[in-house]
Structures are given as C-alpha cells and as structure tokens.
Amino acid sequence: MSAATAVLNPRLTAATTGRVLRQLRHDHRTIAMMVLLPSLLLGLLYLLWRDVPSLPGQPSVFDRVGLTMLGIFPFVVMFLVTSIAMLRERTSGTLERLLTTPLSRLDLLLGYGLAFGVAAAVQALVTVTVATTVYDLEVAGSLWLVVLIAVVDAVLGVALGLLASAFARSEFQAVQFMPVIVLPQFFLCGLLVAREQMAGWLQAVSDVLPLTYAVEALQEVGRSAAETGTMWRDVGVVAGAAVLALALAAATLRRRTS
Amino acid sequence: MADAVTVTDLVVERGRRRVLHDLSCAVPAGRVTGLLGPSGSGKTTLMRALVGVQRVRSGEVTVLGEPAGSPGLRARVGYVTQSPSVYPDLSVRENARYFAALYGRGARAADDALAAVGMTDAAGQLVADLSGGQRSRASLACALVGEPELLVLDEPTVGLDPVLRVDLWDRFHALAGAGTTLVVSSHVMDEAGRCDRLLLLREGRLLADLTPGELRADAGTHDLEEAFLTLVRRGEEVAA
Ligand SMILES: Nc1ncnc2c1ncn2[C@@H]1O[C@H](COP(=O)(O)OP(=O)(O)OP(=O)(O)O)[C@@H](O)[C@H]1O
Ligand SMILES: [Mg+2]
Questions:
Q1: What is the CATH architecture of B1-76+198-239?
Q2: In what residue span(s) does the ABC transporter domain sit (chain B) (predicted)?
Q3: Strand extents, DSSP E, chain B
Q4: Which candidate from A19, A96, A102 shows the least CB-CB separation from B98?
Q5: Considering only alpha carbons, which residue of chain B is nearest residue A95?
Q6: Residues of A with CB under 8 A from a CB of B
Q7: Which residue, by CA, sits nearest to atom 10 of ligand 1?
Q8: Ligand 1 site, residue B52, Cβ cutoff 6 A
Q9: Per-residue pLDDT reduced to its tens digit, B158-215
Q10: B105 φ/ψ angles, rounded to the nearest 5 degrees
C-alpha cells in the first residue's frame, strides 16, 4: 500500500543530499581517503607496469588497466560507503524516525544517490587529472567522458549498496556483501580475460553484469577519439541498472517492521 | 472531549511472541497522556503502532481521524524514539535543520526548537560529543521542530536532572495548552502525577485508563508507585 505512495519531493531529496554531504564534511579522514586513495593505488599500478615493455601497436598494459580502474574504484568505494551508511541509519533508529516524517523512501534513496554522486565526481576529477598528468595515462577520447562514466559507475555502486544493506543485519554482513557483489563483476568484466576468450556460459553471465558495460564504455573512450554509439549504449545500460537497483531498494525498504 | 487517537483490539506479534493482546484505548486531544508500565510491557511497541512503523497482526489504530501511518499524517505526527535517533556525525544545529527541512520549516524553527530544550549553547557541538541527556534533548528538538499536532515521546526524560525534567514537563503542558496532543511513556512513577491521563500497561494488556487522582483513590494510597503495584496485584488475583 505505502509502496504506491512513493512520491518524490525534490526539496526533501535535496535536504537529504545536503545532510549526507554535511555528514561527510565532518569526517575529514573519509574525505581524504575518498579523494586520494584511487590516485595512490593507480600510482602503484603505474610503477608496477612502468618497466614492462608493451607490444608494438598495442596500448600499454597500464593504459588499459589504469583506465578500467577509473571506473572500478568509484563503484567499489561508493558501494561500501553507502551500504555502511544505510546500515547505520537502520541500526541507529534514524531510519525509523525518517519513515515517520514526510520524507518518502525514494527521496531518501535519491538523496543518498545524489550526495555520493557528487562525491564521486570530485573523486573522478582528481583521479583523472592525476592519472593523465602524473602517470601519463593515454586516453584517445574526451576526459570528460571518463569522468561521466566514473560518476555513473559510482551511482551504480550507491544503488547496489542501498539494495544490499536491506539484506544485512550487521556491519559484518554488510562488509561481506562487497566481495559478493563486486568481485564476480570484476572477474568477468573483461579486464582479466578478454570476454571473447571466456567460456560461453561465463560470457553469458558477464553479459548481464552491469560492470561489464562500464568497463567496455571506458575502453571505447580509451580507444577512439570520437564518441561511439557503443559507448553511449553502455553508459545507458549502467544508468538503467542503477535506476533498477534504486527502485528495488525502495521496494525492499519496509516502512512497517516487526 | 474528542480523542486524538483510538486503538481498537490491537494485536501485535514481535518475533514469535504476542506483545500486545487485543489492546483498546484512547488518547484525549490536547492533553498529556502518560503511557506507563514495567519494562517489556509493550509501551514502545504501542507507540510504534501509533506512528505507523509497527507491523500489526490485527486491530485498528486511528490517529487524528486517519489510519495510523497514512502519508497525510506524517507532517502532523512527531515521534521521538526511546534511544536518541539523531546523526552523531552532525552538529546539533545541523540535525535540527535537517528535520526542520523535512517538515517544511526553516532555520528559525530549528533554532526555536533547540532553545525550547535548552540546547542553544550546545548547538554547534557534534552530537557524538554530547552527554546522554543532551543527546536525548537534541533528539526531542528534532520532533518539536515540526510543531506536530500529535507528539509521541518514548521516555523523553530519561537521564535528565530534576531541574531539566521539570522544565520539560512544563513545556509539555504548555504545548498541550496550545492544543497539541502528547503521549509520553515513562516507567518512572513520579512522572505519572504530571500527566492528565494515564494508560497503565502490563504484559501487553491495558491495566487501567484513568487520571492520577483516580489511580490514587482507587488504590487508596497517595503514592503512585504503590498504587500501580496495588493494581497489578489486583489484576493477578483476578487472573488466578
Ligand atoms: N525487535 C523485536 N523483536 C522481537 N521482540 C521484540 C522486539 N522488540 C521488543 N520485543 C519484545 O516485545 C515486548 C515489548 O517490548 P517494548 O519495547 O514494547 O517494551 P517497553 O514497554 O517499551 O519496555 P521498556 O520500558 O524496557 O522500553 C518485549 O517482551 C520485548 O522483548
Ligand atoms: Mg520502550
């Protein structure tokens, strides 16, 4: 019954976004890690492959892996941060209280999505800047597209994190959803083994995992200077998966509990 | 006198246990109604049912003329949970402003609510750095800020010193005087005397619905704690 009344109030969504960002702002260490950690990890990859010669005519391993990582970091980080944040709302009683206010469940979830989307944009801008200037990452296409894809990936991570937190009763469980949700997508996304070389059924699984499309979109931007249709389709798939996960999260968020 | 809340044959099960047994009661509008009973008697469960977050087995709860928890009620009902539910990683003022925004109010309303609970001086402090009593006052402010018609307060005075306690009870009566209906739970019997009306719960059943004066007269003692115990024993004799 209350699922049908999930109206949307932009003012309340914005208030929630502001509140989540304010919570982040008080937590300096989390901000520092969110903004700097991907750049540092990327630096490690850069050093790892710096002296490995690449095949002539092929992009260097770092260009390929580093670019993919620009999409995977925000996905993983935002998944973790959101599932913990939502679990804290649940266990601290603030969620119960919010559900008695005019805030709708969709307002709450979108509020989170927007807040961490903003955080992801800052993270992506810093990481892309560092990657292309300090580590000489080569990207044929527009860097803005890389940032866009990173933000869409982050929003997907937020949406899946919100959904996963509905099934976690404790922080211990919530943290363990990370490998469950993230690692299979990472293994099958085409980075470790090219998708064409996978067994047929693994390729089929890979076809329905959203991270596959995020990685393909980044590879398209890395390869071609012009925007490709495949790239836009992939971005659409990832965004669609995020919307679907948000809707599922709203549906699994019960107002009345026993 | 009109009733702000009516509960009819409410049955609630939590886990595999029946927590409220065919409970029926009413809360008069514009009054302070005390919900009293021993720990585990179902006070919090009943309050959760009033604000519409408790899954109920059967029965009806009508709040301000609508079924409890209907969307139209959410701006008209304020709820303070038993353990303070405010964001520890925000300042007191930021918490109050967020809840003010959810009720469509501005920064002024937030400041007023903080002043009402004596938290103006601590407004800039992070909730994580507050004492227990300060934290529960911050939580209370976040409900007052919406100026709801019905305030459901689960043990709002726990951990407060006598002076603050008296202040808050005066505030509750001032709100009731202005037309707000309050339901306040407590297991401190000396607070029962400050209520206009008492609902006494025991093991998920309504033991009595009366005024403090009636409770004293009924039990033949001036001491409310004593009177409550008398009623409980009488109930046990009837059951036996
Ligand atoms: N989440 C839950 N799951 C299962 N049973 C619960 C849950 N919460 C409470 N109960 C049970 O429901 C009964 C009523 O609990 P409730 O919290 O309503 O009591 P209370 O009167 O508010 O007690 P207190 O004064 O200690 O706050 C208790 O027996 C309790 O064990
Ligand atoms: Mg209780």
A1: 3-Layer(aba) Sandwich (3.40)
A2: 5-228
A3: 3-14, 17-28, 32-36, 58-63, 66-67, 77-80, 150-153, 181-186, 197-202, 205-210
A4: A19
A5: B85
A6: 2, 5, 7, 11-12, 15-16, 18-19, 22-23, 26-27, 92-94, 96-103, 255-258
A7: B14
A8: no
A9: 878 888 889 899 999 999 999 999 999 987 777 889 999 999 999 999 999 999 999 8
A10: -110, 165
CA distance B236 to A144: 75
ipTM of the predicted structure? 0.92
Q: What is the pTM of this model?
A: 0.92
Contact between A213 and A232 (Cβ < 8 Å): no
Beta bridge partners of residue B26, listed in sequence order: B6
Residue A105's alpha-carbon distances to A61, A198, A247, B189, in angstroms, are: 44, 40, 10, 38
| Structure letter (DSSP) for residue B172 | H
pLDDT in tens, A67-123: 999 999 999 999 999 999 999 999 899 999 999 999 999 999 999 999 999 999 999
In Å, what is the CA distance from A18 to each residue of A112, B179, B198? 9, 33, 41
The tokens 């046990």 sit on which residue? B236
CB atoms under 10 Å from CB of B230, counted, come to 16
Residue with tokens 């009109």: B2
Neighbours of B147 (CB within 10 A): 18
What ranges do the domains of chain A cover?
10-49+59-252
CB of B91 shorter than 6 A to ligand 1 = no
Whether B126 and chain A come into contact, CB under 8 Å, resolves to yes
